[in-house]
Structure of Probable chorismate pyruvate-lyase:
Amino acid sequence: MPTPTSPREPFWHPASHLAWQLPRALSPWLTDQGSLTARLISHSDDQFAVKLLRQGWARTHTSELRLLGVNAKHKMLVREVVLQGRGESWVFARSLIPYSSLNGKLKALRNLDNRPLGALLFQDPDMTREPIEIAAISAHNQYVDGDYLNNEDGQVWGRRSLFRLQGNPLLVSEVFLPAFVASL
């Protein structure tokens, strides 16, 4: 069984290993291979926004480095946002982009600000996505700021995937917050 390498790192598993225990309403959202941004825009009746929490060069978790195929000395752009629907915080998203991936057309990834990364990813016909991993994340895990985890059962569900744009890797993790689950 995988183990986290820091208190903030969730236990990530292949989606197929957890399919039987996923919440019924959330399962299609966790396992969908398409654009989460497009689905959220539709689900929110076009009342969608991206709130940038932080973006900058930072250290990452061991399992993230492993998926990206880089070592701990590699510079990593970390972007954390909250995707909002109908004025509520629905999804916490964490994107990791190795410095070596920020070349050519991908330089634009440095300056997304409040624009959704998903819109850029899914408009590239050469983009590839590796299989989704899923985690049940405890409110005590600290992967997501506790202010967004105001649910009674103390657990949220997240997914992550490695994408490749022009052959360059980037990792996107998305955690579905209690307000989103309540909207289903």
